[in-house]
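Technical note accompanying the year-one report. For the benefit of new consortium partners, we illustrate the data format agreed upon in the data management plan: each record pairs a sequence with a structure-token string. No post-processing was applied to the example shown here.
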Amino acid sequence: MDLGVVAGEHVAITGANGAGKSTLALTLAGLIPPAAGLAVAAEELRRGRGGDGTGWDPLDWRPGELITRIGTVFQEPEHQFARPTVRAELELGPALAAGARGEDPGEEPARIAASLLRRLRLEHVAEANPFTLSGGEKRRLSVGTVLAARPRVLVLDEPTFGQDAHTWGELVDLLRELMAEGTAVVSVTHDLDFIAALGGRRFHLGSPRPVPDGPSPDRLAPDAAGPAPADGSAPHPATGRPASRPVAARGGRW
């Protein structure tokens, strides 16, 4: 299996339950070692937003290096809650990211948290304990905690589960904005509408090669991302131009 992730694109990992989708996502996120082969971070991802370099293997990165490069939303939201209130959860990522850069976070964590509380419709539970939220609220908070640190790659495991139409649309809009800024998004999902909305590529476990996006195994939305370039790279979902900056790649047999 070979899978590359390019800056500004969406890669959807699909397949039957038990096929290894979440395991592949955790491997790409640098949280578990590959079963075989290598997980390699490209030079642009290794440099990070602050320009400080790291090694090629995400498994060797320190927490402060990982949080600003690859952010992961787990299948179970409770697995990533670490603070007593929703607001504090959203402030944690920016504070850690600033600390990793050797900077004083100042008011930035509070500003980012306020923005995400509004965008994710969590203002009414800002001072609540994250474990007391509804299932949909927990899912939105888990996504927000990762977005708050502004990583270069987002790995999302079932990000739309439990969302109503309004919050689903807001999440899609937010991810589109991040992709337009160059953030790569990797999702594990059964939501074909979500795949169609973000465009990009679909990597189906059990298939010998990536398949295009669309509402069927062949295509979900033929016009969502424009025609595929001859070199096989996915067009940028916002511009329609081919994306050409690899940020992570994985090789080996899965």
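Partners are asked to follow this layout when depositing records. Residues 213-254 have pLDDT under 50 and may be disordered.
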